[in-house]
Design goal:
Layout (H helix, E strand, L loop, with lengths): L1 H8 L2 H16 L5 H18 L7 H25 L12 H4 L4 E9 L2 E6 L2 E6 L8 E8 L2 E6 L1
Parallel strand pairs: 3-5
Antiparallel strand pairs: 1-2, 1-4, 2-3, 4-5
Helix pairs in contact: 2-3, 3-4
Keywords: Membrane, Transmembrane, Transmembrane helix
Protein name: NfeD-like C-terminal domain-containing protein
Organism: Rhizobium subbaraonis
């Protein structure tokens, strides 16, 4: 079925694939399918120029598409990395990391290495040396969802 559609569309099959990938990028943003879509459109442009050539077989088209996809993804990653903007909120989506260095009072004692503190509006599970309720602790690191603390 796919071979029949590709044969009927001819070189336009690559253009259709490229546009479908670009539409998918809009529906599932992640800036990845756009580069593969561009590779498909470039392969389609080459197919328009070379379609009548005897050596322009589907195998060669797929190899060129694969190579162009790899090149487009690598170039795209470099462009995105170069244009990355510095932010004044480096821990925006890393809430636990933003708590490192803060101090708090234990709400539940640390027994057998685990306890709880309250920072802002959230209770956090902490790991550290055994300490009683009311002890002051400082957050020194984050492991998963747990905060590593030490006494102040």
């Amino acid at each position: 079925m796919v071979a029949r559609i590709a044969a009927e569309l001819g070189p336009w099959a690559w253009w259709v694939l490229g546009v479908l990938l670009l539409i998918l990028e809009v529906l599932m943003p992640g800036v990845f399918l756009v580069w593969i879509g561009i590779a498909a459109i470039i392969t389609g442009a080459l197919s328009l120029l070379l379609w009548e050539s005897a050596w322009w077989a589907w195998q060669l088209q797929w190899l060129i598409f694969a190579a162009l996809s790899i090149v487009a993804v690598l170039v795209g990653r470099r462009l995105v990395a170069k244009n990355a903007q510095k932010t004044d909120e480096p821990f925006l989506n890393l809430r636990g990391q933003s708590l490192v260095g803060r101090t708090a009072t234990l709400q539940e004692p640390i027994t057998e290495g685990r306890g709880r503190i309250r920072l802002d509006d959230t209770f956090w599970t902490v790991q550290g040396p055994d300490l009683p309720v009311g002890a002051r602790v400082r957050v020194v690191s984050v492991t998963g969802r747990d905060l590593q603390v030490e006494p102040v």
